[in-house]
């Protein structure tokens, strides 16, 4: 069976698969909230309720998404991206 993976270009010219997006987002969260247990992160993990992130942490995540993926998240979208799964979907939808 042929399995294809969608790849995306990063700002440095490399590519990242769909699984790579999830891995990169987990890495971003571990950078921002070092005490997070990445094995407990799932699509429903809330940044505020589950990870204890505050507004400054959220801005750091936005900055890291821009640096790693070249995606600028407008302030108007911040409220819609409050879980791990929503952030992964947001990034994946914009890297095609």
Automatic annotation (TrEMBL):
<keyword id="KW-0276">Fatty acid metabolism</keyword>
<dbReference type="GO" id="GO:0036104">
    <property type="term" value="P:Kdo2-lipid A biosynthetic process"/>
</dbReference>
<dbReference type="GO" id="GO:0009245">
    <property type="term" value="P:lipid A biosynthetic process"/>
</dbReference>
<dbReference type="InterPro" id="IPR003231">
    <property type="entry name" value="ACP"/>
</dbReference>
<protein>
    <submittedName>
        <fullName>Acyl carrier protein</fullName>
    </submittedName>
</protein>
<feature type="domain" description="Carrier">
    <location>
        <begin position="20"/>
        <end position="95"/>
    </location>
</feature>
<keyword id="KW-0444">Lipid biosynthesis</keyword>
<dbReference type="Pfam" id="PF00550">
    <property type="entry name" value="PP-binding"/>
</dbReference>
<dbReference type="InterPro" id="IPR009081">
    <property type="entry name" value="PP-bd_ACP"/>
</dbReference>
<keyword id="KW-0443">Lipid metabolism</keyword>
<keyword id="KW-0596">Phosphopantetheine</keyword>
<dbReference type="InterPro" id="IPR006162">
    <property type="entry name" value="Ppantetheine_attach_site"/>
</dbReference>
<dbReference type="GO" id="GO:0000036">
    <property type="term" value="F:acyl carrier activity"/>
</dbReference>
<keyword id="KW-0597">Phosphoprotein</keyword>
<keyword id="KW-0275">Fatty acid biosynthesis</keyword>
<dbReference type="GO" id="GO:0005829">
    <property type="term" value="C:cytosol"/>
</dbReference>
<dbReference type="InterPro" id="IPR036736">
    <property type="entry name" value="ACP-like_sf"/>
</dbReference>
<dbReference type="GO" id="GO:0000035">
    <property type="term" value="F:acyl binding"/>
</dbReference>
<dbReference type="GO" id="GO:0016020">
    <property type="term" value="C:membrane"/>
</dbReference>
